[in-house]
């Protein structure tokens, strides 16, 4: 069992997740089997009940795990399929330990942070690493060294180095900030020195330091960090800001990061040559687009881009495949109630309405869907966006003026969107939705079938409400065809509007399975239709 721990110091938001993902990508390119774990020190059991304004999007895995968005980076960069156990939170740890104590598992002993909490952390890490069958598992330690809630996880990481043998089975990589100060651009290494000192005070000596800065650090700064932090100079890695996060693996590769990890941990790669040709082609298309389209993303969390991170990455993947930059224009749906939609959506070659919860912003999204339908603008609706498109067509094509979802209007006389039967009587909010991968059958001759290249697909879900079957026949007669279905045809999954260049919506979230080499088919369809308008 070989573990690489990636920690962060000085400030949050340095890109530990991208760094960990990039190292994983490089190791996989050498033929190694790689897995990943994200540790989040918050007390929530999972990310499912967290507001996107608070923590960014909730990323959903095949097994229904609602997890931190960094697991999306792992899946995209390393091309993995992870499960809920790959996200460890303080809430999960304490819940298990308290349940064990209530059962009497600790035989009357006083339950303490050490050893009971740290043992449970170690047990979970080792279980995931073992069951993944990986050659190496990368463990991102969320938070910043010095945070009180991170202490048990750092202690567990220290103990695992002792238990497994830190000479070759455990490696510690620390990501820190090297600010560049003043007009002369002087690099300040003191924050890194202090952070490493704090880490060493906890019993962890980093093997490698990733120095984050706005520009590449100079050799003098590298030598200074090496001397004061007691790290070999070759293991001080400069990671400056990049034009694209997808540059990071190649930046690390140029400095021999994969070779150093392999040498230190005595790994046995299948090849000494990296296999990054597809990645390089993808990155070249990202950085050197031949054209540009604008997609208006109409939502309610638009002040925080991370709320829609997987959509942004799916558009990057789809655009790169066509040598096109996809510029995403964030539109607060409420603005469409205050202004002429033509002025708000001016310049957009396509429109996407993503998922969301709650009544706020819904009417503005209905305006956006109607604008796309009536003006033949390429449109993609996802989850709530699928339901919005259905409500809009009921109102303005079928003439059901009061058509709505029972989520927003419980007493509506036309509940075209209703609560799923299995959700009725549900009291707990966490992990109780229809979650994870579900099989979907797609109709022959549909746009979706052409895009997927298959009639049988598996996509990830996160919802409580669905299309009311009582309205399906009328909707299909009006041209809103349900070309994708699940659960023996009883649950509507994909809608396509007849006679429109591209008006498609899905109950599932195709963005969660988008990969640089394999873009989400429905996002690809929207981008292709948008390119057709330039």
Summarize this, please?
The protein has 534 residues and is an alpha/beta fold. The strands form five sheets. It has a nine-stranded mixed sheet with strand order 13-12-14-15-23-22-21-18-19, sandwiched between helices. A seven-stranded parallel sheet has the order 5-2-6-1-7-10-11, sandwiched between helices. Helix 1 runs parallel beside helix 3 and helix 5 crosses helix 6 (151-164).
Can you put this structure into words, describing what you see?
The chain is of the alpha/beta class and 534 residues long. The chain has 2 domains: 217 residues, P-loop containing nucleotide triphosphate hydrolases (Rossmann fold); 243 residues, Rossmann fold (3-Layer(aba) Sandwich), CATH 3.40.50. The protein contains 19 helices and 23 strands. The strands form 5 sheets. It has a 9-stranded mixed sheet, with helices on both faces. It has a 7-stranded parallel sheet with strand order 5-2-6-1-7-10-11, with helices on both faces. It has a 3-stranded mixed sheet with strand order 16-17-20, with helices on one face. It is globular. The N and C termini lie far apart (53 Å).
Rg, nearest Å: 25 Å
Largest sheet: 9 strands, mixed
Described by the principal axes of the CA atoms, the overall outline is globular
CATH topology of the largest domain: Rossmann fold
Q: Name the poorly predicted regions.
A: none
Overall residue-averaged pLDDT value: 95
CATH superfamily of the largest domain: Class I glutamine amidotransferase (GATase) domain
Number of beta strands: 23
Which structural class do you get from the secondary structure elements?
Answer: alpha/beta
- In DSSP terms (H or I, runs of 4 or more residues), the helix count works out at 19
Order of strands across the main sheet? 13-12-14-15-23-22-21-18-19
CATH top level label of the largest domain: Alpha Beta
Helix content: 25-40%
Overall domain count = 2
Strand content: 15-25%
- The rounded distance between the terminal residues' Cα atoms is 53 Å
The CATH architecture of the largest domain can be given as 3-Layer(aba) Sandwich
């Amino acid at each position: 069992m070989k573990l690489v721990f990636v920690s962060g110091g000085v400030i949050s938001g340095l890109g530990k997740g991208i760094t960990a993902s990039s190292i994983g990508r490089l190791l996989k390119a050498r033929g190694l089997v790689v897995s990943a774990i994200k540790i989040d020190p918050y007390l929530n059991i999972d990310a499912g009940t967290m507001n996107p304004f608070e923590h960014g999007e909730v990323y959903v895995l095949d097994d229904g795990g609602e997890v931190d968005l960094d697991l999306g980076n792992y899946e995209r960069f390393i091309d993995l399929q992870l499960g809920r156990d790959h996200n460890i939170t303080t809430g999960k740890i304490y819940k298990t330990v308290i349940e064990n104590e209530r059962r009497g598992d600790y035989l009357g002993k006083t339950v303490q942070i050490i050893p009971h909490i740290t043992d449970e952390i170690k047990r979970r890490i080792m279980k995931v690493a073992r069951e993944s069958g990986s050659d190496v598992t990368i463990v991102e330690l969320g938070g910043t060294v010095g945070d009180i809630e991170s202490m048990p996880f750092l202690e567990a990481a220290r103990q695992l180095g002792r238990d497994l043998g830190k000479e070759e089975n455990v490696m510690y990589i620390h990501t820190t900030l090297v600010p560049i100060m003043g007009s002369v651009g002087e690099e300040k290494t003191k924050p890194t020195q202090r952070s490493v000192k704090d880490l060493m005070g906890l019993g962890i000596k980093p093997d490698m330091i990733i120095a984050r800065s706005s520009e590449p650090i100079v050799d003098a700064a590298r030598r200074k960090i090496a001397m004061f932090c007691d790290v070999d100079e070759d293991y001080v890695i400069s990671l400056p800001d990049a034009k694209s996060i997808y540059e990071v693996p190649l930046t690390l590769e140029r400095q021999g990061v994969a070779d150093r990890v392999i040498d230190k941990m005595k790994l046995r790669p299948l090849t000494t040559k990296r296999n990054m040709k597809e990645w390089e082609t993808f990155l070249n298309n990202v950085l050197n687009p031949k054209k540009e389209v604008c997609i208006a993303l109409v939502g309610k969390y638009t002040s925080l881009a991370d709320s829609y991170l997987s959509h942004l990455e799916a558009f990057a993947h789809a655009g790169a495949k066509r040598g096109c930059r996809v510029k995403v224009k964030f539109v607060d749906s409420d603005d469409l109630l205050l202004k002429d939609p033509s002025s708000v959506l001016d310049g957009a070659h396509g429109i996407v309405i993503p998922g969301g919860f709650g009544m706020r912003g819904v009417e503005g999204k209905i305006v956006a869907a109607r604008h796309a339908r009536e003006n033949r603008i390429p449109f993609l609706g996802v989850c709530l966006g699928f339901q919005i498109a259905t409500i809009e067509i009921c109102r303005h094509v079928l003439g059901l003026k009061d058509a709505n979802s029972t989520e927003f209007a419980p007493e509506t006389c036309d509940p075209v969107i209703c609560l799923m039967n299995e959700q009725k009587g549900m009291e707990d909010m966490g992990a109780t939705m229809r979650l994870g991968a579900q099989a979907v059958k797609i109709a022959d001759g549909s746009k979706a079938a052409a895009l997927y290249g298959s009639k049988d697909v598996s996509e990830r879900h996160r919802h409580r409400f669905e299309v009311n079957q009582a309205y399906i026949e009328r909707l299909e007669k009006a041209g809103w065809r349900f070309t994708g279905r699940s659960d023996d045809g009883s649950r509507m999954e994909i809608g396509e509007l007849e006679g429109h260049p591209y008006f498609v919506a899905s109950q599932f979230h195709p963005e969660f399975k988008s990969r640089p080499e394999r873009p989400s088919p429905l996002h690809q369809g929207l981008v292709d239709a948008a390119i057709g308008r330039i």
